[in-house]
């Protein structure tokens, strides 16, 4: 299982045999903890602010925050000094997707995510590359009324060209990274 400690963003795949799954299940089965997660998803807050915001006793909030910290669903975002010069911890949610998978499927789930990532990058790059190509065609080669292609087809063709450019760029990056790793 990959260890995402130090990184609170991305995807964390947790095998069903992991001891962490029990802490997560226990934390999420508590309605108060879920309310805390919902509030902390909006902005970081201290335990006192959470207590005031939700109208809960401070001890209840602290207990649930400890459970969420143990399950690694929240983190200490920052620490400030209060007027009384005491450290006040501000909590925030950990922004990562959790995937629960059987042990034997863990590697295949990671493999699937790795296989889908390049496709996502290609589509993400295709749109701006296609728009740049379309602007280049219109600016330097011909005005749209001089090009005997209707505007929808021009947009479609530039998107396809953007996909091709993105695939070429991704391929080039893959080849370069392969040779850099070999050294």
Structural class: alpha+beta
The rounded Rg comes to 25 Å
CATH superfamily of the largest domain: Winged helix-like DNA-binding domain superfamily/Winged helix DNA-binding domain
Which regions contain 5 or more consecutive residues with pLDDT less than 50?
1-6
Number of helices: 6
Helix content range? 55-70%
Helices and strands, in order, run as: EHHEHHEEEHH
Distance between the termini: 28 Å
Q: What is the domain total for the residues?
A: 2
CATH topology of the largest domain: Arc Repressor Mutant, subunit A
Q: Give a short account of the largest sheet.
A: 3 strands, antiparallel
CATH architecture descriptor name of the largest domain: Orthogonal Bundle
Calculate the mean pLDDT score and round it.
76
Shape: elongated
Q: Strand order, biggest sheet?
A: 2-4-3
CATH class category label of the largest domain: Mainly Alpha
Structure, described:
It is built from six helices and five strands; from the N terminus they run βααβααβββαα. Helix 1 runs antiparallel to helix 4, helix 2 crosses helix 4 and helix 3 crosses helix 4. It has two domains: 91 residues, Winged helix-like DNA-binding domain superfamily/Winged helix DNA-binding domain (Arc Repressor Mutant, subunit A), CATH 1.10.10; 79 residues, no CATH class. Strand 3 and strand 4 form a beta hairpin. It is α+β, with helices and mostly antiparallel strands.
């Amino acid at each position: 299982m990959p260890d995402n400690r130090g990184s609170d963003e991305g995807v964390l795949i947790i095998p069903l045999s992991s001891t962490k799954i029990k802490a997560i299940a226990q934390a999420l089965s508590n309605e108060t903890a879920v309310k805390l997660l919902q509030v902390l998803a909006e902005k970081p807050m201290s335990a006192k602010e959470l207590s005031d915001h939700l109208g809960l006793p401070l001890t209840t909030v602290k207990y649930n925050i400890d459970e969420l910290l143990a399950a690694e669903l929240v983190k200490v975002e920052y620490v400030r000094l209060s007027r009384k010069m005491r450290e006040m911890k501000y909590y925030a949610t950990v922004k990562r997707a959790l995937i629960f998978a059987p042990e034997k499927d863990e590697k295949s789930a990671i493999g699937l995510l790795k296989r889908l990532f390049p496709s996502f990058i290609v589509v993400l790059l295709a749109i701006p590359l296609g728009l740049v190509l379309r602007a280049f065609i219109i600016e330097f080669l011909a005005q749209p009324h001089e090009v005997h292609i209707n505007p929808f087809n021009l947009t479609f063709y530039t998107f396809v060209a953007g996909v091709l450019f993105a695939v070429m760029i991704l391929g080039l990056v893959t080849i370069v990274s392969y040779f850099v790793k070999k050294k």
